[in-house]
Amino acid sequence: MKCIINGKLILKDKVAENMAIVFDEKIEKIANLNEINTADYEIIDAKGMYVAPGLVDMHIHGYLGADASDGDAEGIKKMAMGIIKNGVTAWCPTTMTVSKKEIETAFDTVREVKNSNEYYGSRILGVNSEGPFINAAKKGAQAEEHILKPDADFIIENADIVKLFTVAPEVDGAIECIKKVTEKTDVLVSMGHTDASYDEALKGIEAGVRHTTHLFNAMTALSHRSPGVVGAALADDKVTTELIADTFHVNKGLFGLVAKLKGDKLCLITDCIRAGGMEDGDYTLGGQPVHKEGIKCLMPDGTIAGSVLNLNNAVFNLYENSDLEIYEAVNCASLYPARALGEDKEIGSLEEGKRADIIIADEKFNINKTILGGTIRYEGGKN
User: Fold this and answer.
1) Does residue 271 come out as left (phi exceeding 0), alpha (psi in the -120 to 50 range) or beta?
2) Residue 6: count of CB within 10 angstroms of its CB
3) Alpha helices in the chain (DSSP H)
4) Which is it for the CA torsion 85, 163, 235, 151, positive or negative?
5) Are residues 22 and 132 located together in one domain of the fold?
6) By residue range, what is the domain housing residue 242?
7) Is residue 383's pLDDT more than 60?
8) Most buried by CB count within 10 Å: which residue of 44, 122, 170, 294?
9) What is the pTM of this model?
């Protein structure tokens, strides 16, 4: 049994000091330090740093040269081992609009890794299938030749591994697909890569859409006469929204506004691609060329193609560019995505009885330690 002391505990509603966390595979006790006999435990000294729940990245395509759409088990493991260092303890490998055969292979590969008994890194919750049921008018960096008509049966047949998927609610067959999937499964339906009007977006929400893929990007914008998908997502409390808080995809001046409007429905994501964690240069996304320069990833025509953001940096960016308290910013990358995915009874916050997925981070939210299921899996400077 281990015990963390001398940390600033980031709980879901406050930051607490002079507290200790006792844990094994699960969190056994959170109490005042003077109530704990530290001699009974293996002590981890947080040295005044933040002690927070492990982060949950529900939308990440790639990292360290690997991509979920490659359908390569070693690549999935490489990503899982890499993002542990960014404080991510649970994630959804995210596929692209590639060929249906490639998507099926990717699903099978994620199944294989997820169901293996070996330690492979950050725990896989399931696949995020971004496409192929999207609108070519808002395809962004997705390959138009692989876009398909919404197919509920395809999602239902893979509901054991698919946690969420993206659909453009205005395309032919989308509403029927949304209704059927929500009736038959617990898969989260997200609207994205969509040219829907405000009214069409509302019809999608009425049919069962409960999430929004990377808010503002690849969707109809908000204006005073045509609120678009952005307006529908911001206005409806039933809908959670993703935000890529890298200061490039969305201007940092909007971070606080979105946070105020969405509250506990805001989910920070990375939308990271294989160029993440790599040097500047040329890479691919869904088989298409992408050039990385700093925080920007662009296709040859200038189209934005995912990000190279780390989720711990997204937390700090949101905190630094809004009026949110640090615990509220952390919630956006832990509790709220866990809740959107139906995983919040097990993960997402520091609470007795939940999995001991815990991170220790400095004042800029650089990760010092990552603990997964009670085992230290990363220590800064040692791995």
Assistant:
1) left
2) 17
3) 73-83, 100-114, 152-157, 174-184, 198-207, 228-235, 255-262, 311-320, 326-331, 335-340
4) positive
5) no
6) 54-340
7) no
8) 122
9) 0.97
